[in-house]
Amino acid sequence: MDAITRDFYEERRRKWRRSAFWRGVLATVLLIAGSLALAGWFLRDAHPVGPHIARVEIWDVIYSDPWRDEMLVEIAEDDDARALILNIDSPGGTVVGSEALYLAIRQVAEAKPVVVTMDGAAASGAYMAAIAGDHLIARGNTITGSIGVIFEYVNFAELMDRVGVGVETIRSSDLKADASPLRELSPEGRAAEQALVDETQAWFRGLVAEARGLEGAALDAVTDGRTFTGRMAVENGLIDAIGGEAEALDWLESVEEGLSELPVETWALPEEEETLLPRFLGAVLGLDTRLPDLSMPNGPRLMAILK
């Protein structure tokens, strides 16, 4: 082998050794990043340990959320969680979602003290959830109340007539799908939908009456859909006090001595479930591997929401 050929192969070996070194460095970095990402996933969803007061935040519009409700059941069953502070800042949401949240909070309240703190708003379906607690606290200017039910949808019938578009629908009866954006609601259909709203509102009123000890004119005055500030809500019996988390801790201390000395730990709602591989690739590559949220409302439904 001549000198030129020998030098050529020697240079190739040096290049291979350098590239092998950097490949090893890259593999090590990816392994460390992957390990940290996996640890982060498990630690993220891990619940606090040791005696503490659990804090759960209910913010934005309320929909059906089995992960949220399951977490509340876990709090009810966790002996380390000695009490619950439920922080609400929500205009309400679907009636079914608010009902499910109410029932989950009631499970906690049957096992340990639950105090509710209201921030900017805790109205309609959010107020429904709040009354599942034992003690309700709001800021003086919190918007609450709005106790009522809505069935609402967009109607394009007149617009379709103007542009000359028609839709043929074959129905099993005149009331089937009468509430449709494609046609005007008939008097019979309106009466049927109103009966549905009225029945649900009567159920909502019953929850308020039982939770807040209201009846007669006092109940009528707060369940006609109007909103109240926190100060007004104290006067009419919808909440118990003005304040925030400090006042919530004071109330817990009055219920059980020593509770206010425990740390307050936030229980975070778990993120949507993903298989291990998409979650790993998402963390390492910076990609969003989450599926669309199919639990969001996609059609007309009963709402208990601030309007």
TrEMBL record:
Q: Which residues cross the membrane?
A: 21-43
SUPFAM superfamilies assigned to the protein according to its UniProt record, in alphabetical order: ClpP/crotonase
Gene Ontology terms: biological process: proteolysis
Pfam families from the UniProt entry:
Peptidase_S49
- Keywords noted in UniProt: Hydrolase, Membrane, Protease, Serine protease, Transmembrane, Transmembrane helix
Which protein are we looking at? Signal peptide peptidase SppA
Taxonomic lineage is: Bacteria, Pseudomonadati, Pseudomonadota, Alphaproteobacteria, Rhodobacterales
Family from the record: Belongs to the peptidase S49 family.
Q: Which GO terms describe its molecular function?
A: serine-type peptidase activity
Protein encoded by which gene: sppA
Where does the record place the Peptidase S49 domain? 108-254
